[in-house]
Specification:
The structure holds 2 protein chains of 2 kinds. By secondary structure, chain A is α+β, with helices and mostly antiparallel strands. Chain A contains 9 helices and 10 strands. In chain A, strands 3-2-1-5-8 form a 5-stranded mixed sheet, with no helix packed on it. In chain A, strands 4-10-9-6-7 form a 5-stranded mixed sheet, with helices on one face. Classes of the chains: A alpha+beta, B mainly alpha. The interface between A and B is large, with 125 and 130 residues.
Chain lengths: 377, 627
């Protein structure tokens, strides 16, 4: 990074010197009254400006190459998903192709500006058109574009295709200003229904407990655990305003839209431990960020992402406390026919004794939720 | 302002030609003026005012980004409560600054300031008309814009702050006052201001289109129009088709905010309550917004490209290369501009199949754009270049157009957009290709037509210094942002200290901020040069750049009606520079082929026969008809 600053400062300095030198020159010319005899219509300093284009070309080429080398380490984060590496290849391939016209057109443009600067006695060439040339340089970009589009389209179709049937389904919900992950559960591994009207201070994602699959669901709003080497399907939604799921190392990004669930599937293939070893950073963590402006805390919706091998992922899942275990009072919301099933997800000292109490606790919880929300407001 | 006109005897014009025109009062002449030239200057000066505000805002938030948590309590006299006790910028106000910077620069500076100034100033002068088709609508257009500006300006100072949801103001964030302070009154004022602005654009656009179609002078056929006029004409059509869609988007948002409808809202739980709205779609807003938003990019850029075409040809002393290809590419870009909008929405959750379609359409735009870049470069080839400040800015524009345009090919690729969407890569891309390139067009235009506007020349040396400082500055600010973008730094972040993956590049961000301050300061050279030259600049001649187009046949400062006496007739295209055999290296459009037998091309000799017909026409002079 120091190099970047160094090189760019150099560009600054040299240009400043040029400008100052040029100013002095102009002043000298005016004072002496001997500025080159130039026709009235030729702007002062014509040759200087032509020269500056060459200087600019050289310095900027050095700066582009130099800063690129200096910044290379910090560019694309190491890809840790299968499609991520494919996208990286595609990205650098496209950048490589585009670097050619970037350098060529700019250099030619500046060189022509220098070469064909005003010279006394020179007459410009009357050259209004050349159909052959125009057809050639319409066709070349068209062909290159076709190539880029085709490779991009293939990658896009594969990435956005339907997730494999065996994908691990995890729900991720965005709200102001954090993420909440919901898992299919310690036993059935199926996400239950949800309804935004059921959201309150405890039931942050609106789990619908009248659905049998919801009974063993659990949530986590600090960590997203995913298994390595297995397709993971993120079911994405938002509670309040637009958010966007962004896991930079996985090349995953998809907006979270209130009222319209979205999805993104991918295969993470480097566990957190593996990437830590690879990078030599023992405290490295994958991260999940928000990339759609969502309000004051937009810049700080960080969630840790933990990738582990499938066995330890399964172990982690089985150790989690289900939603009902955390908030047993919600048993009241479970319909009678599922109550017996729900019982086994309650905390250990379950007893018939809780049954009469829960309507009251649920009410308390409800009013607590309202109170909390009032204070938020 | 009245002193601007000193030294120019406009009363003579009145005596000669239409003595029945009474001298107008100060208010009618300079404030509620119906004269296209005065309206153009009003647009220009308003645009300069807004650009200073918009750029100053960017410097403030760049300070926060370059030096997180920097103590800016010295700004408290202006920002007041938005700076907390420790001197830090409030995160909500950071978002407000970002939003206002975008809104002001895109709409007030680069749409109104650029298109409003030069379409108004140049259309009548370059096609040979006395004024716009409707001077009154033209006046209304400016005053609607002015009113929009006043409301937006007021919104900066209200308790809850101006709109803060990003310049795209996506709902539900912008629809729910409880989501952020800026979505309260500030957002309402934003919507009202934009509605008025759209009215202004439509009034202006209708006028530009009508004028170009109906009021061209004798002989000014479409294939003799300067490329500036082609660009303004197509731009006006783009605006006329797309702005009403933004209007409906804004209207529906107003309904959602004020009247409880659910166009954009569905299944929302916020601040401890579930809202009753169901069935709406935030994606609908995005479609409507970008249906304007993408053409808007070209509304901003095409006039700049038109101006560049004119200036590059004049100062290379060469015809623009591929005049017809240039027109075709303008039309091609304009057409494609309407069918690519959803490339802003690849990861919005819309159907991926749509993403594929829009990727194909988007990348086609690269073809006409490439043609334009090549044609500019070829125009320089074997020219005899004069580096006026206008010419420098035009060459700079081509460079920026190429550099910024190429990264668009990456972003238009839906697969690559997954990683880069809403990162600084996007910021770098559009600031270079749309922001800076269009601003360069604006500068080029001001330097080039300043003599016609004010009868005086701007200082060339200061102009050249301004160019180099700005050109280098723009690249130093925006080129490094590609790096942070590739590294995944998201846009609209108050600070990058919350994440591991944004821990790098802190010194680069500081560098960008310093470069931004440098570039901002360099603009004061221009401001000084502009206002100083207006009063004290060297007196201009009638045609200081030895240019071919019609505006240079008017008096040094054209009066009411632009030409004393008859409007000249046009006999040739505007790019006869350095024609072999010609005595001088330019032949104005008003010179008939019969007077230049030495330089006529074979097919041009045939046109001598129709010169009589051209002269006989006389149906477009507004002064000749009863009014």
């Amino acid at each position: 990074m120091v190099y970047i600053i160094g090189i760019l400062t150099l560009v600054f300095l040299v240009l400043t010197v040029m400008v100052v030198a040029r100013l002095r020159n102009v002043v000298k010319g005016v004072n002496a009254g001997t500025e080159e005899t130039r026709p009235e219509n030729i702007p002062s300093g014509n040759r200087w400006n032509a020269n500056l284009f060459i200087l600019f070309t050289i310095l900027s080429l050095i700066a582009v190459v130099g800063t690129h080398i200096a910044a290379r380490e910090d560019l694309l984060p190491v890809a840790s998903s299968v499609h991520g590496r494919r996208l990286d290849d595609l990205f650098w391939f496209s950048m490589g192709v585009l670097a050619i016209p970037f350098v060529a057109v700019n250099v030619v443009l500046f060189y022509f500006a220098y070469k064909y600067q005003y010279k006394p006695g020179r007459v410009a060439t009357y050259y209004p058109e050349n159909h052959k040339l125009e057809i050639i340089w319409t066709a070349i970009p068209a062909v290159v574009m076709a190539l880029l589009v085709f490779t991009g389209w293939r990658a896009w179709s594969d990435i956005t295709s339907d997730a494999p049937a065996d994908a691990e389904v995890i729900e991720i919900v965005g709200k102001q200003f954090n993420w909440i992950a919901r898992y299919g559960g310690v036993e059935d591994n199926r996400l239950g229904n949800y309804n935004f009207k059921l959201i309150d201070a405890q039931n942050e994602v609106g789990i619908d407990l009248s659905d049998e699959s919801s009974l063993d669901d659990f949530t986590n709003n600090t960590e997203l655990h995913i298994p390595a080497g297995k397709p993971v399907l993120l079911k994405i939604r938002a509670r309040d305003v637009l958010h966007s799921v962004f896991i930079p190392h996985m090349r995953v990004k998809m907006d979270a839209v209130p009222g319209m669930p979205t999805k993104f599937w991918f295969v993470a293939d480097k566990t957190t431990n593996e990437i830590r070893a690879e990078l030599g950073k023992p405290d490295f963590d994958y991260e999940l960020a928000c990339t759609e402006i969502c309000g004051r805390g937009h810049f700080a919706m960080r969630m840790r992402v933990i990738v582990e091998d499938e066995a330890s992922y399964r172990r982690w899942v089985s150790e989690q406390k289900t939603f009902l275990q955390t908030y047993p009072e919600y048993l009241a919301k479970v319909p009678d026919n599922l109550k017996s099933k729900a019982m086994k997800y309650l905390p250990e000292p379950t007893a018939p004794a809780t049954a009469p109490a829960d309507s009251a606790t649920a009410e308390n919880a409800g009013s607590a939720g309202a109170g909390a929300s009032a204070s938020v407001r | 302002m009245s002193s601007l006109e000193t030294g120019i005897d406009i009363t003579k014009v009145h005596d000669d030609d239409h003595a029945h025109h009474e001298e107008l009062s100060f208010w009618r002449k300079y404030v509620f003026s119906e004269d296209h030239k005065v309206i153009a200057k009003q647009y220009l000066i308003t645009g300069i005012f807004w650009s200073i505000i918009g750029l100053a805002m960017s410097v403030i938030f760049r300070l926060q980004l370059g030096f997180p948590g920097i103590d800016i309590s010295w700004l408290r006299p202006i920002l007041g409560q938005w700076i907390d006790e420790s001197g830090k910028l409030d995160p909500n106000f950071y978002l407000a600054l970002v939003t206002m910077h975008g809104t002001i620069m895109v709409f007030f500076v680069l749409t109104a300031g650029l298109s409003g100034t030069f379409s108004n100033f140049l259309i009548p002068l370059q096609i040979g008309a006395r004024d716009m088709a409707s001077g009154f609508l033209n006046m209304l257009s400016y005053w609607f814009f002015f009113l929009a500006g006043v409301i937006m300006f007021i919104s900066l100072f209200i308790q809850t702050g101006p709109a803060s949801g990003g310049w795209v103001v996506y709902p539900p964030l912008s629809a729910l006052p409880q989501a952020m302070p800026g979505s309260g009154l500030g957002m309402s004022l934003w919507l009202v201001s934009m509605a008025l602005f759209i009215v202004s654009q439509l009034l202006g656009g209708i006028n530009y289109i009508t004028t170009v179609i109906n009021l061209r002078t004798r002989g000014m056929s479409f294939n003799r129009l300067p490329l500036t006029i082609w660009a303004f004409f197509i731009t006006a059509i783009l605006g006329l088709i797309s702005f009403p869609v933004l209007f409906s988007a804004a209207l529906l948002l107003i309904f959602d905010r004020q009247f409880g409808t659910s166009f954009y809202l569905s299944e929302i739980y916020i601040n401890g309550e579930a809202l009753p709205n169901v069935g709406g779609s935030p994606i609908l807003y995005q479609h409507l917004f970008w249906f304007l938003g993408h053409p808007e990019v070209y509304i901003v850029l095409l006039p700049a490209l038109g101006i560049t075409s004119e200036i590059i040809a004049t100062n290379s002393r060469k015809p623009i290369f591929g005049y017809r290809a240039m027109i075709a590419s303008i039309i091609g870009i304009a057409f494609l501009a309407f069918i690519v909008w959803a490339h802003h929405m690849f990861v919005s959750g819309m159907n991926p199949f749509l993403g594929s379609v829009f990727m194909f359409l988007t990348l086609i735009i690269a073809v006409p754009s490439a043609v334009k870049a090549f044609n500019y470069t070829t125009t320089l080839w074997r020219g005899n270049i004069r580096f006026t400040p206008a010419m420098l800015f035009s060459i700079g524009l081509v460079s920026l157009f190429v550099t910024g345009g190429l990264t668009g090919i990456i972003l238009g690729n839906s697969a690559l957009d997954i990683q880069l969407h809403d990162t600084y890569f996007v910021v770098a891309h559009f600031h270079i290709v749309m922001g800076a390139a269009s601003a360069f067009g604006l500068f080029a235009g001001v330097y080039h037509w300043f003599p016609k506007m004010f009868g005086r020349m701007m200082n060339t040396t200061l102009g050249q210094i301004h160019f180099w400082a700005t050109f280098v500055g723009v690249y130093l600010v925006f080129f490094p942002l590609h790096y942070t973008g590739i590294a995944g730094f998201p846009r609209r972040y108050y600070t990058f200290t919350s994440y591991e993956f944004t821990k790098s590049f802190t010194d680069l961000n500081a560098f960008v901020t310093i470069a931004a301050i440098f570039t901002f300061l360099a603009q004061w050279i221009f401001v000084w040069n502009f206002f100083y030259s207006m009063f004290k600049g060297k007196l201009a001649s009638k045609n200081p750049w030895q240019s071919n187009t019609l505006e240079w046949t008017t008096p040094v400062v054209p009066g009411h009606g632009n030409w004393p006496g008859e409007i000249p007739a046009v006999y040739r295209w505007p790019y006869d520079y350095s024609k072999p055999g010609a005595k001088e290296d330019f032949i104005p459009q008003t010179v008939p082929h019969s007077q230049t037998p030495e330089s006529n091309l074979p097919h041009e000799n045939e046109e001598i026969a129709i010169e009589k017909d051209i002269e006989a026409q006389n149906f477009n002079d507004q002064f000749k008809n009863a009014h």
